[in-house]
């Protein structure tokens, strides 16, 4: 078995994976995997590759190199989403705080937001899941990928706005 090829395949197929999870899946020490990942990162920096391996928030993932991004956008059916400033407030609140209920969003914004949340959900910007009888809204995976929020933040948000409930 070619361990480097397996690591590369897992990173690619998982759309992002931690060193700890790779170690668990492959039953290989993290130190050994880290050497392999560093080799892969170095190799993918070469001009002949259109993608690069990056680590963001302990997650390794392949990203299109910026110089080739427009080709990918043109070739895929990525939808563009135009957000109003009110919708952007909701997205920002979720980026900073993680999944939120409509009540929490209303409190953070200081105004009724359910109609905006519904429109963001319908547009595929937000996902929702039921927890304790209430819906929690979060950014959809496709929207996160589209805006590459991990690239913007580069780390977990240091400050959160917590509604008083």
Q: In words, what does this structure look like?
A:
This protein is α+β, with helices and mostly antiparallel strands and 165 residues long. The chain folds into two domains: 3-69, Orthogonal Bundle (Arc Repressor Mutant, subunit A), CATH 1.10.10; 85-153, Arc Repressor Mutant, subunit A (Orthogonal Bundle), CATH 1.10.10.10. Helix content is 51%, strand content 16%. The chain is built from nine helices and five strands. A three-stranded antiparallel beta sheet has the order 1-3-2. Strands 4-5 form a two-stranded antiparallel ribbon. Helix 1 (3-14) crosses helix 3. The radius of gyration is 19 Å and the shape is elongated.
Summarize the helix and strand pattern as letters.
HEHHEEHHHHEEHH
> Could you say what the CATH architecture of the largest domain is?
Orthogonal Bundle
Count of distinct structural domains: 2
Give the DSSP E fraction (strand runs of 2 or more residues).
Answer: 15-25%
The order of strands across the largest sheet is 1-3-2
Helix content: 40-55%
Per the CATH scheme, the topology name of the largest domain is Arc Repressor Mutant, subunit A
CATH class of the largest domain: Mainly Alpha
Taken from the alpha-carbon principal axes, the silhouette is elongated
Can you lay out the helices and strands and say which pair or pack?
Elements: H1 3-14, E1 17-18, H2 19-26, H3 30-44, E2 51-56, E3 59-64, H4 69-75, H5 85-97, H6 102-109, H7 114-122, E4 126-131, E5 134-139, H8 141-147, H9 149-153
Antiparallel strand pairs: 1-3, 2-3, 4-5
